[in-house]
């Protein structure tokens, strides 16, 4: 029996998943959560085998931030991300946060069930429609890495990697023993240097040029 925690900020979607998954005798839904904060708490309380979590939750922690915290607290929990979007930034930000699988919501029900079973067995999975994008992205990253240098300082590199892990400015400040204002200034400098506009783009950059950031 695989024990599941369902996380989605839309009640209709959440209840629909619960109802569908409970029809499978090898799957047991042990809890639900509607926010990233609640997901972290319930994951610790219920110790599910797999957390099925929407990436784009409402206010507060997003799915990637919750994923990272859950994995830090209990590395044994497997996390399968659900989203309506399969863009490069979403895929790679999820991987950086520690997710073991990635499935778009338009997938067929049995595809989701098979993904849950695969992840529960300790394997990783990416939605088939995203696999080609991942391979193309990695090939492009390899080609663009050749002979390039990052314009970031050692401190900026560290902060960029923490952003890619899903950390907020407050969490980064605590990790590096800096003020939140100082981290905010660093983030602005990083964005300006790399000519990026948001944290998703920062995460994508970190994945693409990770070898230069260590």
Description:
Helix 4 (88-97) crosses helix 10 (199-208) and helix 7 crosses helix 10. The chain is built from eleven helices and six strands. It is 57% helix and 14% strand. It folds into two domains: 2-133, 3-Layer(aba) Sandwich (Rossmann fold); 147-213, Winged helix-like DNA-binding domain superfamily/Winged helix DNA-binding domain (Arc Repressor Mutant, subunit A, Orthogonal Bundle), CATH 1.10.10.10. Helix 5 (109-120) links the parallel strand 5 (101-104) and strand 6 (125-126). The termini are far apart.
Q: Secondary structure elements and their pairing?
A:
Elements: E1 2-7, H1 11-21, E2 27-33, H2 36-46, E3 50-54, H3 63-73, E4 78-83, H4 88-97, E5 101-104, H5 109-120, E6 125-126, H6 128-145, H7 154-164, H8 169-176, H9 180-194, H10 199-208, H11 210-213
Parallel strand pairs: 1-2, 1-3, 3-4, 4-5, 5-6
**Which secondary-structure class do the elements indicate?**
alpha/beta
Question: Strand fraction band?
Answer: 5-15%
Report the total helices: 11
Distance between the termini: 41 Å
- Name the helix and strand elements from N-terminus to C-terminus, one letter apiece: EHEHEHEHEHEHHHHHH
Write out the strand line-up for the largest beta sheet, numbering strands in chain order.
2-1-3-4-5-6
CATH architecture of the largest domain: 3-Layer(aba) Sandwich
Given this structure, which CATH class of the largest domain is correct? Alpha Beta
């Amino acid at each position: 029996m695989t024990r599941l925690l369902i996380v989605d900020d839309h009640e209709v979607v959440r209840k629909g998943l619960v109802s569908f998954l409970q029809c499978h005798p090898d799957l047991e839904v042990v809890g639900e959560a509607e926010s990233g904060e609640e997901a972290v708490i319930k994951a610790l309380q219920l110790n599910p085998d797999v957390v099925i979590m929407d990436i784009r939750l409402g206010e507060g922690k997003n799915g990637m931030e919750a994923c990272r915290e859950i994995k830090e607290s209990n590395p044994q929990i497997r996390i399968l991300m659900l989203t309506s979007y399969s863009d490069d930034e979403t895929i790679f930000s999820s991987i950086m946060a520690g997710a073991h699988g990635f499935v778009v919501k338009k997938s067929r029900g049995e595809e989701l069930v098979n993904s849950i079973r695969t992840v529960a067995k300790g394997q990783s999975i990416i939605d088939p429609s995203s696999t080609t994008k991942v391979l193309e992205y990695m090939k492009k990253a390899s080609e663009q890495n050749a002979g390039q240098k990052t314009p970031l300082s050692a401190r900026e590199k560290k902060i960029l990697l923490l952003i890619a892990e899903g950390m907020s400015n407050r969490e980064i400040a605590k990790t590096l023993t800096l003020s939140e204002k100082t981290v905010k200034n660093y983030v602005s400098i990083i964005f300006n240097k790399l000519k990026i506009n948001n944290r998703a783009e920062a995460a994508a950059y970190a994945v693409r040029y990770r070898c230069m950031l260590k």
